[in-house]
Design a protein that fits this description.
Keywords: Signal. The chain has 10 helices and 5 strands. A hairpin with a 2-residue loop joins strand 4 and strand 5. Helix 1 packs parallel to helix 6. The longest helix has 39 residues. It is elongated.
Length: 343
Amino acid sequence: MRAFLSLSSWLLLGVFLIGQVQGGPNSIYAHAAERVLAYMLYEAEGLALEGKNTGRVLAKECTPGQKRRCDFHQFLTYIAGKGATGSPSLKNNPRYQAFDSTNRDNIANTIQLLATDPSMTRVVDVDFRPGLVLEDVRNGYVRLMEDGYREYIPWLRSHVNAMDPGPARTKAATALDNVGPLTGRIVWLRDAPLKGAIADEMMSTFDKNQQNTFYKMKALRDDKGNLLKDDKGNVKYEIFNPPLKPIDWKAETRTFAGKTWKVIDLEKAAKANPETWAKIGDHITNHASLVEQGKAGAKWMPDTKQQIQVHEPVTVAFRKLHQQLVPTAQYPAHELVVRKKCN
C-alpha cells in the first residue's frame, strides 16, 4: 500500500465548518483570489513604471481610454477576455473602488465580495485568458504561473526597489510583499475541498466515543498486511481492555475570505495521543490513505478526488510559485502580512 503520511511528514487536513467551498478546486473563491493577485501586480507595476519610458508588461492593453490605466473592476473584465481580444468595461463599479492591496483585511474582504457578488459571476467564475495578463504566455493557465509570474515578479521587484523613497514606493512594495503569501492562500483554497473531506471522514471515523470499535479491538496482520486467522478461519484480534482513549485531534480554526476551516494535523494528533497512536496509528494512516484515494469514506469522495486531479496542475504551479516567493524562514506558510505602512 502506498504510504500516505508518516509521523515525520507534515500535512494539514481541513474541515469546513461554515460553508464548504463549492465547485471543488475550481472554486469561485480561488478564481476571485487569483484575479485579486493579478491586479495587485498590475497596480504595483503602474506605480513602479510611472513617469518612465519602460513599457508596460502586465495587461499592457488594459486601457479604457485616454491612456488611463484600468481600475480594479475594469481590469477584471479585461482579463476575462470579453470580446475577440479582451476589452475593459467602461463602467466603474463603486463596490470595488476601495480595494487596497496594502491591507490584508481589505484583500480578504474583496475576495469574499467577488466570490459572492452575483453581478460578477460571469467575470470571475471562468478561467481568465493568460495572454491578456502577460502576452508572451500562450500555452495556458499553468504556464502563467510556471513561466510568466516566475520571471515577471522578480523583474517587477527590481523596479520597485529602484523607486525613489516615498508613499508610492511604500505602496508598491507592500502590495508586492502580499503577493507571495496570497499565493499560499490560493493553494489553500484549491486544496481545501479534498483536505476538508479527508478530515471530516477521519474525525467522524475516529471520534470521541470510547465505545467506538476501533478503540476496543484491532485485527492482527502479518508483515505483508494480510489478516491473521486461526485454524477455523476466524480473524485474530487484539482486544483493548480497557478501551483505548479516544483520539483528541487538537483541531485548529482558520479563516480566510469568509471561509472558516477546522484543521487537523496528523503529526500533532500522534504526539497528543501517544498511547492510542502506538496501538492503532498505522490503522489511522492507512485509512487516511484509502480515503485520499477515494477508496473509503463517503460515497462522494471519488468525485471529489477526480475534481482535484483535474485541476492539480494549477494547484502545483501555485504551490511552486509560493515556495519561490515565500521562503519558510521569512513567513509562516499562507500568512498574509502587511510589512509596511503607507504614509
